[in-house]
Specification:
With 229 residues, the protein is of the alpha/beta class. It is built from 9 helices and 8 strands. The chain has helices at residues 20-33, 49-58, 66-83, 98-106, 121-130, 152-162, 180-188, 203-208, 222-225, and strands spanning 4-8, 15-17, 92-94, 111-116, 139-141, 173-177, 192-196, 213-215. The longest helix is centred in the N-terminal third of the chain and has 18 residues, at 66-83.
Length: 229
């Protein structure tokens, strides 16, 4: 069998940041489009930063053109570097079982670890770097690759091929995430979704979205590892 590519979502799957991303996006939007608490009521879980910004900007009748997109992204990333250092609200930290699972998978020569996240790539680096997790991942697909999360697996596959998985296809990919959006993007690319009920969706919700493998958290990773050769 081909080596496998295992792609992890970030927020709610690997870590919780205590709301750092939302605070940083709100600050950026207030600065540049004059809208305080801009993300109030905007769905966030499992969506790309790109589409979240499109929804936010459309509230004031503006279009997210390339210039505004670049300005908002840059301002957001600057604020995220500040906000990730703050305690925030709610839980902040690495999700249960994550470090142990990443250590095991990283040690295998038949597995390549990557990311599939709605975060901008630099935002993913800031968040995971804060928790010393960035070092595990060699490639990925991010929220600045496409607005539609369902388009991201091909980006990750293309980059994985440059890392040595030259013949990898969607069938060689596992997508690990905590929302139905993660499940949908895996299924759209012919990949295998592994859902983790550590976010705002229950085991039942995630099964109903099409995931055959659903874990309560990544301490139950035996079912995930059983999918690997």
């Amino acid at each position: 069998m081909n080596p496998r590519l295992v792609l992890f979502d970030i927020d709610g799957t690997l870590v919780l940041t205590g709301g750092a991303g939302m605070r940083a996006l709100n600050r950026a939007c207030e600065d540049l489009i004059g809208l305080p608490d801009a993300l109030d009521g905007i769905p966030l879980a499992g969506r790309t930063d790109w589409i979240i910004l499109e929804d936010t900007v459309s509230r004031i009748g503006r279009r997210l053109d390339a210039e505004l997109f670049a300005a908002l992204r840059a301002r957001y990333l600057g604020y995220l570097e500040q906000e990730i250092e703050r305690p925030g609200r709610g839980v902040k930290g690495v999700m249960p079982g994550v470090r142990e699972l990443l250590d095991r998978l990283h040690a295998r020569d038949d597995v390549l670890l990557g990311l599939l996240t709605g975060n901008f790539e630099a935002g993913a680096r800031i968040k995971l770097g804060h928790f010393d997790l960035w070092k595990y991942f060699r490639c990925g697909a991010f929220g600045d690759d496409a607005a539609d999360r369902n388009a991201l697996v091909p980006f990750a596959l293309s980059r994985a091929r440059h890392c040595g998985l030259v013949s990898a296809t969607g069938r060689d990919v596992l997508v690990v995430g905590d929302t139905p959006h993660d499940v949908a993007c895996a299924l759209a690319a012919g990949a295998t979704p592994v859902a983790v009920a550590t976010g705002s969706y229950s085991v039942e919700d995630l099964r109903a979205s099409g995931a055959e493998v659903v874990l309560r958290d990544l301490r139950e990773a035996e079912a995930l590892e059983a999918l690997l050769p």
